[in-house]
Structure formats: C-alpha cells, structure tokens
From TrEMBL:
Superkingdom, taxonomy of origin: Bacteria
Protein name: Beta-galactosidase trimerisation domain-containing protein
Annotated source species: Martelella endophytica
Xref: SUPFAM superfamilies: (Trans)glycosidases, Class I glutamine amidotransferase-like
Family annotation (Pfam families): GHL6
C-alpha cells in the first residue's frame, strides 16, 4: 500500500496545506518519553491510520527539542536526542503536514523565581499553584508570559523545524487573574476593578469579558504574525471549541484561523454520541466553508481524568464516525508515547478508513438541509461559560427530537443571520433565543414575509441583545400572539389539552391532554391564529387528594398560523425543548416533530423509514446527493462507553428527484456496494440492507 497521500503531498509547504490535512494523529509526549518511547512505532501508526497530518509536542511547559530560549524547561530525559525533530522528519518522509504543539499554561519553579509576574493570582491575592501538580505554577495568560516569553519559543520552533503551524493548547487562561499587571491594565482600559464573581449582570464582569477578548485577540494576531514572518505559508492555530465562537471576534477567526480545531475529545457523564457531530453544525453555523477538525481521545473523558488509558473500540470509532457524518475531519490524540495497551490502534484505523471511503464525496459536496435550528449565540454570550450548557437545554431537546424523527437539519448562528443564509432553509427553529436584537428580529420578520416558516418556543424574543426585558413579544405579530405574562416557574403538575383537529396535535389518540412545561408564559391569540393545544392552569401535586384541575383549559399552549406569503408559524410559550431534554417524554418528541412537519408543509425532501435511531446528514453538489446515516441505536446512546455496535436492518430512504433530472445510479459508500432503487411519483426510493456504525448513500443525477 502507498502510504503517501498524493493530495497532501501536492500541497506541502503551501499556503493551502491545511486543505489536504484531513486525517490527524496527535502525540502528546510526556517527560520521560525521550528514553522510553519508540518513534518507529508511531511512524507506523501514521501509516496504519492513513493519517496525512500530525500534531506533535514541541514546547511551552516542557520542551522536547534542544531549546536555547532562557527559562524554557527542556525534558531532563532528553540528553542529546531530539524526539520532536525525529518525529517531524518521519512525518515529512511520508509526505505529511506537520503542526507543532505548545502548551503555555504552567511553569516550573526556576521560571517562577525569575519572573513572579508570570504567575496567575487568585481573588485572595495568592499566586496560583497548579491544581493537579502543586509544585508547579499556573501562568497568567494575559501578560508578559504569553506576550513576551512564549513568542520566543514559537519563533524558535518555527525557525528550526520544517513545520506548517503552531498549535496552542490551554492558551486562553483559567478565568480572572488578579495579578498586579491585570489589575492595572484592566482598570486603565475599562475604569473597573476586576470582578469578584462571574455574574453576567455585573458591569465589571461584562467589561472583563470584553477586555479578555481583546487581549487574547491581539495575542493570536501577534503569534500568527510571528509564525508567518519566518514561514509565510504557516499559521498559528489556537485550540478553539464551539465555546470560542462566543468568546472571540468572528473577524479574528476569519482572518487568522484557516481551519478550526474542536477539542471535544469524547463523552462525559450523560452525553449522547451525537454531541460529536453537533460541533460541526455549530462551527458551520458561523463559518460555512471553514474546515473543522474534531479531536478524539483514545481514553474516557470523564472528570476523573484517566488520560493515559484506553476506552472501548466501539466508543472510539463511534465518536470519530459521528463527527465524520457531519463533515468533521478526524483527529485522534494519544497522551504518552509509550503504548502499554494497543487496543485503540485498530478502531482508530477503522474510523479513519471510513473517512478515506467518503473523502471524494466530501470534496465534491456541501451540507444541505431544509431545517435550521438557530444557535442562540447572542443569548449564550449573556451566560457565564460554566453555565452555558444548562442554558442550552432547549436547543438540545429540539436537537434530539429531530434526530428521533430522522430529519436532517443544520445550525445557523443568530450572529451570522442574513437574508441569504436564512433563505437556504424552509423552516427556522428558535428553541429559546431569548436575546435578540431589533435587527435580528427584523431579519426573521422579513424571512417570514418571503414565505419562510418559523417555530419558536419558551422565552424567544423576550429580551434584547443586552438581556434587557422587552415590554412585548418582539415577534408576536409573526406568530399571531400577544404575550400577556412573562415566563414564570418552575411550576409542577402542568398539562396542556388537545383542542380540535390539527396536524400539530395528531397522533395522540386516546389522550385529551399531555404533560406541559415547567416554565410558562401566558399569551392571547390574534385573529387568524389556531390553537391545537390549550393551557390547563397548573394545580397542586400534593396532597394526592388535591391533584385535580381547578379550571377548564384556557389560553394558547401552542399557536399556529399560515402566513399570507405561504409559510407557516408555530409558537410554544413554554420550555418544551428543555423539559424534553430533561424527561424525554414521547409526547413532547411527537409535538416537536409534528410542529416541524407542519411548518415544512410537505413531505421532507429526504424521508427515511426504518426501525432505528439515526443521526442523518445530507450533502449535495450539482450532480450528486449523499445521505449519511449514523446508527445511534444502542443501549449506551446517552452514556458511554459503547460496548459494541448494534447493526440495524433494512431502511428505505426516499429522496425527491430534482426537476429535469433522472437517477444515474446509487451506491453505498461504506459497504462499497451498489444500492437497489426505484423511482415512484417523482421520488427515488433506495434500499439500505443494514447499517453498522455508518452508511452513506450516494445518488448521481443524469
């Protein structure tokens, strides 16, 4: 087998090198690796996994090359060797792209003694010892350590080694630093003292968030300029997850980050496998064309931090495959060059092989969907970073409900909304975009006026972009309601009653009411608005003898309209997404699915029948349409590690044939077989015999 990727080799050392860096191996060395690990084993791993790019430990906290920068700690086991250089040479001999990893988050005692100003300080004025290794010191990310000392290391690595990029891990700091430099510079820039809490309502906290963004933005620009001054084709690549889109200026990422690296290495606690691919949608919600890489750890990612361990092969392969389903480039990471447990190698190689099979299709196609969930960036920016996951419950609930319905959908950031980006979709979902500016509301209103369909729930439009409560529902005219009471709760024992016959309340035969929400707003309907569900005023849940409704259903629990422009709207004035995410009731999943299908107004372009839970993605070019089917049907879907894969049986995938086209052929790209199909009433129906982790249909139009 030829292990040199010809596309990657053709772009070596060019400004577009990153476009062919599509499968990554990362090796994070530990201090005694220079005398313990086998470089040849790793070079063989590069080959087995068909990797065409590597990220290798170089310096920062520990140098793995003979650095000459004063106070740059070099591994005491290195002697006359150069482990970083040896791996760089081995990768380049295979025609691979090379990125050097640095980690500036900690220093040893000698550096701390020489430069105490490099150490981060807590709110009580104490220099910060490292939380996991107390003999070390945590660095201040905002001062001279990152802005004077680290650039010398960056320049040395770039100058002395044949690399394409510097990759920085743990570079953004660890919260507020109260060192004298930060106190002085923050006060001078903002007029505030440093905040003592992370309360987003505190003006000092909001000012600090902006100041931090500015300081780190300038740091990224400066490091990137330092790299390019030595190697014009190269870049500085900061480790940036989905959260970073809320913490850094979009213009900075656009200019200085040619591709994005998501450091979401695996599942933690109760977390579904589809979280891997969700990262792709979130990045694409803002940067539609930018390559996105997903880092996968070979060990469990639980809080107990077994970083030098191996999880199950099925878990590794599933995490990689779900990222691939949504267009993410695979990257695996191994901590420690010594390999006492090799059970991870084959699953990584198998996972990467799936990407090889789909590589040509990915190169020719782009993601497409009829449905988009708004990523409420404006809202989430008003939450502290540690609290954002809880603030995303409504979005996560809608996300999972659509997966259960086997519907393909994308994200669209509210900060990237334009008329053009909205018009790519037939249905826009605002699960709980509570903070929207007047300009954002205007874009949504104009989208509806052009015939687009909208679904909104919970507190959407309740506040402006700063978090200030609005007097009226900003989009009430679109949804045909006036809000008469702001959201209240949490309440218990709430219900909603079916009202008349309507597509949104279909499928509840035998029920007159279903569970309601825990946070409720009151609305009154405008003429022309229908109410397929009405609110039942909540009533006591104890004593048990008191558990009965006190009043008849009144007020809209779901409001629907058909607009003059031909679109449809659905408004749900309670937390249906969040409560579904918490409880996973089938009735709420059905309600969300019914609302989406009603808003579409027609059968979905891609419709899938079969007994399974699938995460679906659709991609297309002028002559091709691909449907990716990731199999979530597993008892460990919500809690890893996955023990084994449970293949599902026959599925039928129905796709609208474009006007003026015919079906030239259909293939199953993972199994490598032709697919059986027939054309019925303008739709092509493709039979998929079985799905293991992943299968992909490729349709070619004549």
């Amino acid at each position: 087998m030829n292990f040199i990727d010809p596309k990657a080799a053709a772009h070596l050392r060019t400004p577009e090198w990153y476009k062919t860096a599509t499968r990554w191996t990362q090796l994070t060395l530990v201090e005694n690796d220079p005398v313990k690990f086998d470089p040849d084993f790793w070079i063989d791993v590069f080959k087995r996994t068909r990797s065409n790019a590597v990220c290798l430990s170089a310096g920062g906290y520990i140098g793995f090359y003979p650095s000459k920068v004063p106070l740059h700690y070099v591994s005491k086991f290195m002697g006359d060797s150069d482990p970083f250089g040896r791996l760089v040479e081995g990768a380049r001999e295979l025609g691979m792209h090379v990125m050097a990893r640095v980690d500036p988050h900690a220093i040893h005692q000698d550096a701390a003694d020489a430069h105490p100003e490099w150490i981060a300080v807590d709110k009580d004025g104490n220099p910060r010892r490292h939380w996991a290794m107390p003999e070390l010191w945590v660095t201040c990310a905002y001062g001279d350590y990152n802005n004077v000392f680290m650039p010398e290391i960056v320049k040395e690595i770039t100058r002395d080694y044949d690399i394409d990029a510097i990759f920085a891990n743990r570079w953004q700091g660890h919260g507020v630093c109260y060192c004298e430099s930060c106190r002085t510079r923050f006060k001078s820039a903002t007029g505030f003292d440093l905040p003592m809490t992370n309360d987003v309502a505190d003006p000092a906290w909001r000012a600090w968030s902006g100041w931090r963004r500015d300081v780190l933005t300038r740091m990224v620009i400066n490091w990137d300029n330092d790299v390019k001054a030595i190697r014009p084709h190269a870049s500085f690549i900061p480790n940036m997850g989905g959260e970073s889109l809320m913490e850094f200026d979009i213009g900075l990422i656009e200019k200085h980050c040619p591709f994005l690296v998501v450091d979401h290495q695996g599942r933690r606690g109760l977390e579904p496998v589809w979280m891997a691919g969700r990262n792709a949608k979130r990045m694409r919600a803002t940067f539609r064309e930018r390559p996105v890489v997903l880092i996968t750890s070979i060990g469990p990612e639980e809080e107990h931090r077994w970083k030098d361990s191996v999880t199950t092969g099925a878990e590794i392969e599933s995490w990689i495959a779900n990222g691939i389903t949504h267009g993410m480039l695979p990257w695996f990471t191994k901590f420690n060059g010594v390999v006492p447990d090799e059970r991870w190698v084959a699953p990584v190689a198998d996972g990467f092989e799936n990407h090889v099979k789909l590589d040509a299709m990915f190169e020719e196609t782009v993601p497409t969907a009829e449905i988009a969930i708004i990523d409420p960036t404006t809202t989430l920016k008003n939450w502290a970073r540690d609290e954002r996951r809880s603030a995303e419950g409504d979005d996560l609930g809608f996300y999972h409900a659509l997966i259960e319905e086997k519907l393909a959908f994308e994200f669209l950031s509210d900060e990237a909304m334009t008329a053009e980006s909205l018009d790519r979709f037939k249905v826009i979902i605002l699960a709980n975009a509570s903070n929207l500016s007047d300009a954002q509301c205007a874009l949504l209103r104009e989208y509806a006026a052009r015939g687009g369909s909208l679904i909104a729930a919970h507190e959407t439009g309740m506040r402006d972009e700063t978090g200030k409560a609005r007097r009226a529902f900003a989009l009430g005219d679109i949804f045909g309601v006036n809000r008469t009471e702001l959201s209240r709760g949490p309440v218990k024992n709430s219900y909603i009653a079916l009202s008349g016959e309507h597509p949104v309340n279909a499928g509840y035969e035998g029920a007159k009411r279903i569970i309601g929400g825990t946070k409720l707003a009151a609305v009154e309907t405008l003429p022309g608005t229908q109410t397929p569900f009405l609110s039942i005023p909540d009533f006591p849940d104890l004593p048990m003898e008191e558990v009965y409704p006190r009043a008849e259903p009144t007020g809209a629990a779901v409001a629907t309209r058909e607009t003059e422009a031909g679109g449809r709207t659905v408004y749900i004035p309670w937390n249906i997404g969040g409560i579904f995410w918490d409880v996973l009731t089938a009735d709420h999943q059905r309600l969300i699915a019914n609302a989406v299908r009603f808003a579409l107004g027609a059968r979905p372009r891609v419709d899938i029948a079969g007994h399974s839970v699938l995460d679906v993605a659709v991609r297309e070019s002028e002559d091709t349409l691909a449907v990716l089917l990731f199999n979530l049907t597993n008892p460990m879907m919500f809690k890893g590690p996955t023990r084994s894969v449970y293949p599902v049986g026959r599925h039928t995938v129905s796709v609208v044939v474009p006007e003026g086209r015919s079906v030239l052929g259909a293939s199953l790209l993972i199994s490598g077989e032709k697919a059986e199909f027939q054309v019925v009433d303008g739709r092509v129906e493709i039979e998929v015999p079985s799905i293991g982790i992943l299968e992909t249909i490729e349709l070619r139009w004549a």
